[in-house]
Amino acid sequence: MAQRDRIFAVIEAKGWISNRDFAGMGLLHIGRNRLTEESARVYFGGNKKYVAFVKGETFMDNKWELRDIVQEESTATVKVSCLKCGFVFDARARDVKEGNGRYCSRRCAGAYRSKKTAKGQPRANLQSLAPIPDGLQQALL
User: Fold this and answer.
1) CA distance 71 to 78
2) Is 131 contained in some domain?
3) Which stretch of DSSP H or E encloses residue 124?
4) Core-most of 7, 74, 114, 133, by most CB within 10 Å?
5) What SS3 class is residue 93?
6) Which positions of the chain have pLDDT values less than 50?
């Protein structure tokens, strides 16, 4: 049995493997390489799982856990208007709920958030905000 197969068998049986397990198998300092290479991603990815590194208190306590890949649910969107230019766009509802989704692009976000202009006033004070079309919301959380 190849080293890789022995490592994968331990992870599947216990759900994790530590540097202590590697030392017990006569292998040392290869966990990170063996578990992050393409073969591990392909092997566990077929089962909708991945291997995550968990730092322990000592080197020997460092381990790699087998975790499920969480599939993102279909994202619900809401229509919002950009704070800077007023462009109406679809933003993910969870982003709006978290306080994001305020700008249609990075360019608008950067222009709106720029600190000072040549006159020393915040840019938002110098330019009027775009009007909000009827039936839309503005992400101001």
Assistant:
1) 21
2) no
3) helix 123-126
4) 7
5) helix
6) 116, 123, 126-128, 141
Give which of 49, 69, 54, 43 is closest to 18, Cα–Cα. 54
Residues 10, 61 within the same domain: yes
Render pLDDT for 57-73 as a digit per residue (tens, 0 to 9): 988 888 888 888 876 66
Is 116 within a domain? yes
Match 């080293």 to its residue by tokens. Answer: 3
Whole-angstrom CA distances from 115 to 84, 119, 124 are 14, 11, 9
Q: Which residues on adjacent β-strands are paired with residue 51?
A: 66
Cα gap 91→100, rounded to integer Å: 9
> In the beta sheet, which residues pair with residue 17?
64
